Amino acid sequence: MDVTSPISMWYKLRIGTFILAWVFLASCSEQMDPLLQRADNEWVQGRNHSAIKMFNEVLRNNPSGAVAEEALFRLGEIHHFSLNNNSRSLFYFQEVLKINRKGEFGYPAQKYIAEIAEFGLKHYDQAIIEYQNLINKYANKSGHDDHQYRIATIYYKKQNYEQALVELKILLDNYPKSSRAEESKFKTIEILYTLSRCPKAREQYRKFNLEYSDSRFKEDLDFIVASCLEEEGHLQEAYNQFKTLEGHYIYPAILKMKLNGIEKRMKKQR
After folding, report:
1. How many CB atoms lie within 10 A of CB 196?
2. What is the 3-state secondary structure (H, E, C) of 39-64?
3. CATH code of 108's domain
4. How far apart are CA 57 and CA 75, in angstroms?
5. pLDDT digits (tens, 9 = 90+) for 185-209
6. Which residues constitute the domain of residue 36?
7. pTM for the full predicted model
C-alpha cells in the first residue's frame, strides 16, 4: 500500500487552492507596499513574468526588511507553482531564511524547502534534514507530527526499514494523539512483516484491533497477518484468514493467487 499517495494528492491540491487564499489575504492587507500589491495582482491574473519583474523591482527598492522577505517568498511561489522551476524556487525560499528565519515567511519558506526536496527534487537525505529543521527550529508551531511522519516515510522510501521504525516510534511517543497515529501503527506492522518479524507484527496487530475496531487499514492488516501465517507454515489458518477477505479486499487478483497457492501446498502435504 502506498501511504504517500494522500500526501502527494494534498501536495498537488495546494497548487490549485493557495492562490485563492492569497487573494483573500492580499485584499485584507491595508499596509501593503503598492508595487508589491500590483505584483501580487499580476501573478493572480496569470501574468507571471510581469509579476516577476515587479517583485524584482520591489527588491531593488527594498533590499532588506519585511517587504523584501515577502517579495522573495512570492518569487519562490511563482517559480514553484506557476513555472515549475524547483531549483529557482528553492533559491528564493532559502533567501527568505537568510534574511529572517524567524519572520512571518520563515516557517512557510522552510516548509516549501522540505517539500521541494522530497517531492520535487527527490533529494531524500536533504528532505530529512529540512523536515527536522521544521521540528527543531520552529518549536512553537503546530504540525510537527506531520513533519515527523514525512521523515519516517522517506526512510521507508529509501528502504531503510529499521530507521523508519525508529522514526515512527518517535512520532507515537512524542505525538500520541496525532491524526497520524493510526496510520503510523499500521505502517509499523507492515514494516515488521517486511522484516520477517511476524510474532511482533501479530502482537502489534492485536493491540491495533483493540484500539481501532473500524480502521480503514483492517483488510490490509488481515492480509499481512494471513501472509505471516502462510510463511510460518500454518497453511489452514492462513487459508481461512485469506478466505475472509474475499469480496472486499482491494486486490482480488492477488488474494485469489494466495488462495490458489495455499490450496496447492496443502494438497501436496496430503
Report:
1. 11
2. HHHHHHCCCHHHHHHHHHHHHHHCCC
3. 1.25.40.10
4. 12
5. 999 999 999 999 999 999 999 999 9
6. 5-141
7. 0.85
